[in-house]
Amino acid sequence: MTAPATTTTTSTTRTPTTAGDPATAGTATDRKALYVYGITPAGVRAPRSPGVDGATVRLLTGSGLCAAVSPAPLRLRPRRRDLLAHQTVLDELAAQGPLLPMRFAVLSPRPDALLSQLRADAAHLSRQLDVVRGCVELNVKGTVVPGHFAELVHRDEGLRSLALRTRRRPDYEANVRLGEAIAKSVRREARRAAREALDRLTPLAVRTVPGRTDDEQVLSVSFLLRSADERRFRQEVDALARDHGDRLALSLTGPLPCYSFVDPGPAQAGR
Predict the structure, then answer these.
(1) Considering only CA atoms, which of 181, 179, 175 is closest in space to residue 156?
(2) How far apart are CA 206 and CA 262, in angstroms?
(3) Residue 23 and residue 207: Cα distance in Å, rounded?
(4) Cα torsion 101, 106, 111, 116: sign
């Protein structure tokens, strides 16, 4: 059976100050409130692209760090144009060096509050910037591929016996039992392939963060990679897709800002 090709897409961001829920974010009552895109080392250029709500993005600098910000909009909703604007600003910042990206709809009540937070968390944020320096994030997901029943039945003695009994004495319950047994075996094979994929990909990464999995999506992991290792990583994912494509459909997303690898600062942890 021909292995399915991997698919590649690109996406968005992660953490600090006062986070708004993009599903419920409403009115910014204080016009000094700031929309925060990310944290970088001091010395970067302000992004030229307009930010959320078309606002000009500026840099708030303190303690050797920069926070890319713009005025918080009166109404904040996850509209497509604003999500894209958020991502474009992050892309411009990431092109200049290490970046701690924020998720969409992170707000700070006032400039002085944000500067105070930068001072309080400067050592922690600087360490985080060192971790992601020269790195990108790629996310790999793997979903169960239904099918290859004949091969499974041929290889698994228990399935083979159940299939023979069902064929000799077919009825509704027997067919249900056989179907459930085959589905369980398919998921087991996919999970085995996912473990093999993880074993081959993990040594290429600086760090990994697991994501949510279920009966269908059996693999979801974010990988922090040195930029120089990205090509080799993609080649390995392609090889895995060929090796395990009859059991596991792999998709690759990225490169992304390293939002899965940003830890909340000490001042933020209790909020």
Answers:
(1) 181
(2) 14
(3) 30
(4) negative
- From the list 132, 125, 45, 55, the residue with the least C-alpha distance to 86 is 55
The pTM of the full predicted model, rounded to 2 decimals, is 0.73
Looking up tokens 């697991």 gives 210
Digit-coded pLDDT (tens) for 46-73: 999 999 999 999 999 999 999 999 999 9
Residue found by looking up tokens 């474009």 in the block: 88
Range with the largest mean pLDDT of 110-119, 157-166, 171-180: 110-119
What does the DSSP assignment read for 170-181?
A: --HHHHHHHHHH
Which ranges of the chain does DSSP label H, i.e. alpha helix?
80-94, 111-120, 122-132, 149-155, 157-168, 172-201, 230-244
Torsion 158-163-169-170 (CA) sign: positive
* pLDDT of 184 over the 80 cut: no
Beta strand extents in 42-105 (DSSP E only)? 58-62, 65-71, 100-101
Inter-residue contact 112 to 216 (CB < 8 Å) = no
Identify which of 199, 152, 140, 142 has the alpha carbon closest to the alpha carbon of residue 178.
152
pLDDT of residue 99: 95
